[in-house]
Amino acid sequence: MKTRRLPGIVLAADHGGVDLKADLLRFLSAKGYAARDMGTDATDPVDYPDYAFAAAAAVGRGEADRAILICKSGIGMAIAANKVRGIRAAVVSTVPDAGLSRSHNDANVLVLGANEVSPRRARSIVGIWLETPFEGGRHRRRVEKIRRFEKAHWRE
Predict the structure, then answer these.
(1) What is this structure's pTM?
(2) Domain positions in the chain
(3) Is 104 a catalytic residue?
(4) 139 is catalytic
(5) How does pLDDT run across 76-117, given as a tens digit for each residue?
(6) Annotated catalytic residue: which of 15, 104, 139, 153?
(7) Which of 80, 83, 99, 120 has the fewest CB atoms lying closer than 10 Å?
(8) Given 3.40.1400.10, 3.30.930.10, 3.30.450.20, 3.40.50.150, which CATH number is that of 9-153?
């Protein structure tokens, strides 16, 4: 019998997402996921780009399959993560959008706003996001257009 491999996940948050990140780390551990905490661990103010870049780069380098980022709104983390080559970060606040971000967009980074989603909803979003496969088909053509543009215009 073939065992299903669970994706390796990194999580990072700024000071506004520390509590939700801790909750999600417990949730993922209970589900058997290999989740690595990339900080921050305190509510002292930090700069969200530092954490978004680190986690997104881990995905971009293949050190993790996916990342989950958390700040107060999710917006700043998503902007920063999407500057990393190969990253498709989506700010998600509903369970249906979590599924669509995977099935249609093949998002490899999930971004949550701690002020926007409760821990309970965040757990539901993360569960769906991790379990939903990319559909391919017409969506593959669109994701490939993004990859080609990125390759043509990315400066190392």
Answers:
(1) 0.95
(2) 9-153
(3) yes
(4) no
(5) 999 999 999 999 999 999 999 999 999 999 999 999 999 999
(6) 104
(7) 120
(8) 3.40.1400.10
